[in-house]
């Protein structure tokens, strides 16, 4: 636990230096990015060791820890990309705004990791913390989904339909957790794969060349409404 906390704090410092060097030389920017990558690699290793120390009898908590550090790694990758894009730009440039937004997400995810690590040893809050992290992750996925940037690839509506089955199972787990209020059931509810896959498949299908603009807008709207509804359900479980 101490190793994770120490390395996470070092990553926050690296992040500050990275953002500050957005207007510096390419050499300084590259050095800051390299330092951040080295630190996130160390953090991932320490978290893996921490997850392994929990033992095979607690696989759900292991997954929660690994997911938390994955979120940090993804946020760092996005932040490095945003820093490169903002290099040399004026303060009112959209790329600088995106850089600030990426930095906020990075800090949020590191904070989430630290809270998760602290909750691991507390049986009474372990599930609750896992669910909070999942809710934050889904919100970030929804922000990407709602952006006007087209997906990297397209897929068929049939692929999207297949992905919706996971939502049904995830919803059933959430309802069960809300009824039982047991921490182990809440941890089982803290799954982000189903909704993330649904949002990705929805956007990819909506941008298929054979899909009309009207149908695309409706598909994106319904995909967002589905994710919003699932988020509302998870937040209700959190309150219960």
From TrEMBL:
> Which BP terms does GO give this entry?
actin cytoskeleton organization; cell-cell adhesion
Entry GO CC: cytoplasm; focal adhesion; plasma membrane
GO molecular function annotations of the record: actin binding; integrin binding
Xref: InterPro entries = I/LWEQ_dom_sf, Talin_IBS2B, Talin_R4
**Domain Talin R4 span(s) in chain numbering:** 16-114
What residues does the Talin IBS2B domain cover?
127-238
Under what name is this protein listed?
Answer: Talin-1
State the species of origin.
Answer: Gavia stellata
Its lineage opens with: Eukaryota, Metazoa, Chordata, Craniata, Vertebrata
